[in-house]
Amino acid sequence: MGLVGTISPEIGNLSFLVSLDVSENSFHGPIPTSVFNMSSLEVLNLRNNSLSSSVPIDMCKHNLHRLERLRISYNELYGEIQSSLGQCSNLEYLSLYNNSFRGHMPTQIGNLTLLQQLYLGSNNLSGNIPKEIGVLTNLQTLDLSNNHFNGQVPAQIGNLTLLQELYLITNNLTGNIPKDIGKLTVLQLLTISQNKFNGSIPKEIGNMTSLLYLALDKNATG
């Protein structure tokens, strides 16, 4: 709607609000902490503004327990992804895509067992992809692209048997492409280009008979 300015903290007074969508505007400044106290919220969509702040360390600790969709992608948010996010246990859709989040991906994200869509791409995240990712067996889309993840892809990624799209492009991932990836038999899109994988392409990749798009370029794979 072309709205500009900051989001008023008084919006947190709407204590019975179930859905808050101010996406695709020109809001700037911080996300009011009062937003994270709206205990009836099921949908929070702040996508594509110019919001710049960190998120509260206890963002899901006291409220937001009903939240099913959190979409704060395409902003200028920074700081670490808080471990308390794992207490928003009803989340089905989570997108922090295209911000400036840094640090490690918290292992507590494994508590979000209802997640179907997880978008953490285009940030400054680093460290290993936690093995707890393998607990998210309802995932259909996993996007960790354009970060600084390193180390090996955990074998537990083979547990995500409902996964249809997997984006790992442009990281610093090393080692072999895990053979467990062959368990993802409904996967349609796999991009692991521009990493540091080496060794051979596992034969198990031939089990992925639903694949429509496969990108392995710009690695050390031979």
Describe this structure in words.
The protein is mostly beta strands. It has one domain: Ribonuclease Inhibitor (Leucine-rich repeat, LRR (right-handed beta-alpha superhelix)), CATH 3.80.10. It has no helices and 18 strands. The strands form three sheets. A nine-stranded parallel sheet has the order 2-4-6-8-10-12-14-16-18, with no helix packed on it. A six-stranded parallel sheet has the order 7-9-11-13-15-17, with no helix packed on it. The chain is elongated, with a radius of gyration of 18 Å. The model has no long low-confidence stretch (mean pLDDT 95).
Which regions contain 5 or more consecutive residues with pLDDT less than 50?
none
Q: Which CATH top level class fits?
A: Alpha Beta
H/E element string? EEEEEEEEEEEEEEEEEE
The mean pLDDT is 95
The CATH superfamily title = Ribonuclease Inhibitor
Structural class: mainly beta
Radius of gyration: 18 Å
Strand content: 25-35%
Report how far the terminal alpha carbons are from each other. Answer: 51 Å
Under the CATH scheme, the architecture is Alpha-Beta Horseshoe
CATH topology value: Leucine-rich repeat, LRR (right-handed beta-alpha superhelix)
Number of helices: 0
Sheet with most strands: 9 strands, parallel
Lateral strand order in the biggest sheet: 2-4-6-8-10-12-14-16-18
Q: What portion of residues is helical?
A: under 10%
Shape assignment = elongated
Whole-number tally of structural domains: 1
| Count of individual beta strands | 18
